[in-house]
Design brief:
This protein is an alpha+beta fold. 15% of the residues lie in helices and 47% in strands. A hairpin with a 2-residue loop joins strand 4 and strand 5. It is globular and about 45 Å long. The N terminus and C terminus are likely disordered.
C-alpha cells in the first residue's frame, strides 16, 4: 500500500498491460481487483453482444465482458489460456476477458501521448492515450467509457 501511495505522490501511475490478439492495452491498476483464470460463463438472455454471461465469484454474480468484442475487434474464443481481469468500473464490478496479462507498468503523465486524430471515433471513445514503451505501442483504456450509464445497468 505504501508503494502505491508513494507512486501517486511522485506523479507516477501504475498500469496493468494485457494482450488481445496481437495488440496491447492497459488499464489503471487502481481499477483492478484481481486476475483469475478463465471460467465458463452462464449466458444471459437479451444481453449486449459483448456480455458473455455471468460467473459465480465467491458467492457474487460477476458479469463477464468479451473486451475484444466491446472494442470492435474479432471476438475472442476463450480457452484455458485466457484470463479474466476483475475490475471496478464506477460502482460496478465486471470481469474483462483478455488473452493474457503481460506487465505492470509505472508511467508518468508525460509517457501518455494523445490518441491520434486518425483513429476511429470508437477508438477515441475508449482510448485515454497511447504509451510508446520499449518499441511497444500500448493503448490506455478508459474503463468508465466502456459502460455508458444506461448500458451498465443491463450488464
Amino acid at each position: 500500500m505504501s508503494f502505491v501511495v508513494k507512486s501517486l505522490i511522485e506523479g507516477n501511475r501504475e498500469l496493468i498491460a494485457f494482450r488481445i490478439g496481437d495488440q496491447e492495452f492497459c488499464v489503471n491498476i487502481m481499477n483492478v481487483r484481481e486476475i483469475r483464470g478463465w471460467t465458463v460463463a452462464t449466458p444471459l438472455p437479451h444481453s449486449p453482444p459483448y456480455v458473455m454471461g455471468v460467473i459465480n465469484l465467491r458467492g457474487a454474480v460477476l458479469p463477464i465482458m468479451n473486451l475484444a468484442t466491446r472494442l470492435g475487434m474479432k471476438p475472442a474464443e476463450p480457452t484455458q489460456r485466457h484470463v479474466i481481469i476483475v475490475t471496478q468500473i464506477k460502482q460496478k464490478v465486471v470481469g474483462l476477458l483478455v488473452d493474457a496479462v503481460s506487465d505492470i507498468l509505472t508511467v508518468t503523465e508525460d509517457n501518455i501521448q494523445p490518441t491520434p486524430e486518425v483513429s476511429s471515433d470508437l477508438e477515441r471513445q475508449y482510448a485515454r492515450g497511447v504509451l510508446a514503451i520499449e518499441k511497444r505501442m500500448i493503448c490506455l483504456i478508459e474503463l468508465g467509457a466502456l459502460f455508458p450509464e444506461a448500458e451498465s445497468e443491463a450488464a
